[in-house]
Amino acid sequence: MIDQRNKTSQPVSGGSSTCHKRESAKKMISSTTSTAESQSSSLTTKEKPHFSQFAGQPLSVRQCFVETVGLENFIRTIIKELHLKMNEHVLFDMNSQGTLTRWDDVFRVEKTYTTCLGISRRTYTCHGYTHEPKKQLAYFILGEHNERSMKILPAFDFHVMIFCYYDSNGIVTKVDVQYDQMGFYMNCFGLAAMHSWCMRCLVTPFAMRWMDAYNKTGMVHPLTFLVQVLVTLAIFSYVVFQVVM
Q: Is the same domain home to 218 and 136?
């Protein structure tokens, strides 16, 4: 009987040792988790890395938020965000049609032509950029909100693609600006707003009614559509000819 009791008591002691092992394992996991959390928190509090630290990466997409009034304020802010430096001279290219060589000229030209076009206040916004260290290039999409100096001219938003090149010392050497020049001037003179209103209020409702009637005929086909276009052009030309003559 004594031997049987001893045999039955042995698993109990083994179970207690297993419990101790589980508790020690939990302590190790909790300590490891706390260490990882402390390391991650220390990483988030570090300063932003310099552009040279991305030299081994082919591409880096980074987030930032810059919103300033005026081109000079925006350029100085975004270059600081990119951890680059400005020199007195730069090759500033606008749609490969106009080239300036000094930052002062860039800022003076922007101030003059915005005044002439009735733009009283321009707000620049950037939410992120793409960095290619091997090419020493950073490019981003810039949003512009233009407020007008005359009430008859509507405010408008515009987007510009900017390519920023720099040398081995981190000094900006070239800025290439790409934008829809025709669309910009149409917005400046209010033609884009007029076109948008006509399409929204006149053309779209008429096109929807024509589509419903066209579908009811059961003859939706490229040839029948071409015939409709030709007939419409003929009628329009006849009406214009009668009015002019």
A: no
The tokens 């950073």 sit on which residue?
138
Length of the chain equals: 245
Token pair, residue 69, equals 């009034």
The SS3 of residue 198 is helix
Separation between Cα atoms, residue 196 and residue 121, nearest integer Å: 23
The one-character DSSP state at 97 is: T
At 57, which CATH number?
3.10.450.50
130 and 217, same domain (yes or no): no
Residue 46 within any structural domain of the chain: no
Q: 168 with 212, same domain?
A: no
Q: Which of 11-15, 28-32, 58-62, 190-194 has the highest mean pLDDT?
A: 190-194
CA 187 to chain centre: 20
Residue 59: CA count within 13 A, CB half-sphere:
3
Q: At what angle do helices 103-116 and 71-81 cross, to 10 degrees?
A: 140
Strands 172-178 and 89-94: parallel
Pair 108, 215 in one domain:
no
pLDDT of residue 245: 76
**Residue of 91, 67, 83 lying closest to 144 (CA atoms):** 67
**66 vs 93, more confident:** 93
Q: What is the pLDDT of residues 101-152, one digit of tens each?
A: 999 999 999 889 888 989 998 998 888 788 888 889 988 888 899 999 988 8
Select from 181, 42, 183, 35 the least CA-distant residue to 98: 181
Residue 227 is part of which domain span? 192-239
Give the global pTM. Answer: 0.60
